[in-house]
Every structure is written in C-alpha cells, then in structure tokens.
Amino acid sequence: MKDCDYDELSAITSLVTSLSQQIGNSSETLNDIDDTLKKLVPPDVYALLVNRDLSNRETKSDKLGEEEEEEERNSQDQDQVSKEKSQRGILNVSEHEQRIRDLQRQRLSLIMELQKQDFITAKLENIIEQYGEIFDTLKDFLKSHDKLQEEERLEAKESLEKYLLQCIFPTLQKLQRDKEGS
C-alpha cells in the first residue's frame, strides 16, 4: 500500500512539475507572441485590440447587477488574482491564436503571391528566351537570305554569260557569215 501511495505521490509531483514547466513555457510563448505582435501591428491597431479586450470585460461586468458583482467579489476574494491571470491568459491565448491565424493567413497569401510572381517571372523569362532564339534564327536567316540572293544572282549572271558565249554569240557569228557569204 505504501508503494502505491509513493507511486501516486511521485506521479502527482511529476505532473505538477511538468505543468509548471508548460505554464512557464506558455507564458514565455505568449510574451514572445505579444512582442512579435507589437512589432508587426501598428501601435494604434495594437492599442485598439487591447482596448477591445478590456471593453469586453467591462461589458460583462456591467451586465451583472451591482449586488451580484459584490457577492461574486466577496466569495472569490482569495482566488480572484489567480483567476484573472488565468482568464487573461486564456483570453490572450485565444486572441493571440486568432492573431496568429490571421498573420499566418496573411503570410500564406503573401507566399502564394510570391510563388505566382516567381512562376510568372519564370514563364516570362522562358518566353523571352524563346523569342530571343527566334530573333537570332530570323536574323541568321535574313543574313543568309541576302547571301543566297547574291549567290543566286551571280549564278544567274554566270549562266547567262555561258549561254551567251556558247549559244547566242556562235549563232550570231554564223548568221553574220552566212549573210556575208550570200
């Protein structure tokens, strides 16, 4: 029986230690988130969010009657400080979680926008490269086309000169001789 009690006490002690560490870590995380939020959000927006949290609490207490509020304060006098801290922690956690979600959504949308821009940039670079290749090919074609036309013109001139020398001039000479001889 004593071993069982010792095991239970040991388990409870380890749980309390673990919870204390987790609470400390959560507190540090919340402080880090709060600091990050202060850096990311303009001061007036941050003040507005903090004031909204305070006004929500005031609205809740206004709804309670004066008598009920007084009774509640008297009955919870000892636990009030710890409850307020835990409530603030819970409220801050939910607000911080919401802020984190909003910031994550914004981050994801920015990442998606950057990815779109990267994709479009890559496609445009690819198109520009293809147009560059087409332009170079066209330029080479035009250069070679001019050369080909010049070569064809020279070839046609040579063919004409050969035709004149081999066919036309001998025929003209023969006709002239025949005319002189007649």
Structure description:
- Residues 73-87 have a biased composition (Basic and acidic residues).
- Residues 58-89 are annotated as: Disordered.
- With 182 residues, this protein is mainly alpha-helical.
- It has a domain at 1-40.
- Helices cover 95% and strands 0% of the residues.
- The protein contains four helices and no strands.
- The chain has helices spanning 2-40, 43-63, 66-75, 80-181.
- Helix 1 crosses helix 4 (80-181).
Ordered list of secondary-structure elements with their pairings:
Layout: H1 2-40, H2 43-63, H3 66-75, H4 80-181
Which features does this protein show?
single chain, rod-shaped, 182 residues, 0% strand, mainly alpha, 4 helices
Q: Rg, please?
A: 47 Å
- Shape type: rod-shaped
User: For the residues shown, what is the average pLDDT?
Assistant: 74
User: Could you give the count of β-strands?
Assistant: 0
Termini Cα gap = 156 Å
Order of helices and strands: HHHH
Summarize the structure.
The chain is 95% helix and 0% strand. The chain has 182 residues and is mainly α.
